[in-house]
Design goal:
Number of strands: 10
CATH architecture: Beta Barrel
Strand order of the largest sheet: 1-3-5-6-7-8-9-10
Helix content: 10-25%
Largest sheet: 8 strands, antiparallel, barrel
Distance between the termini: 27 Å
CATH superfamily: SO1590-like
Number of helices: 1
Radius of gyration: 19 Å
CATH topology: AOC barrel-like
Number of domains: 1
CATH class: Mainly Beta
Structural class: mainly beta
Amino acid sequence: MKAGGVVLLILLAVDLAVAQTKVSGTVQCGKADQQQSMNVGDRANHSFIIGQGKCTWTKPLEIEGAKTQNGAFTVFSEQSGNTVRDHGYVTDTLDSGDKYTVRINSTETWSGGKPVSERGTWNFASGTGKLKGIKGKGTFNGKAEGDNMLINVEGEYQLPK
């Protein structure tokens, strides 16, 4: 590779590193509004669950000056004993009217038939308006507060130029 190519690669790497913007916030999600559960039948407390519900941002994420307000989740879960593994999507609406969707993967810990904590990863799947083409990823962790899960979200994003 010629020296010019190396310089170009270095500049590209610096440009991509600068384009990442960190975000953090806290969201409160209630129990699923709609839920269907099916017992697998091979052992006690082993089931598949699909559910949909709503979330409200108590400490919004800020993306390009707009703040998250509320969202909705759709998840497919496998419960085995006191562990639930979730796979799904969350769509959040910002005060600008733009929306984004993230794909989530998480593990919940349950006790006494109720969730106690949750931790997982997320990555942007799509966006509308100014968020079209958004990329990024992050982590989250939460703890149960009554019938709600209070979830701390951290990550980073970049928008196309």
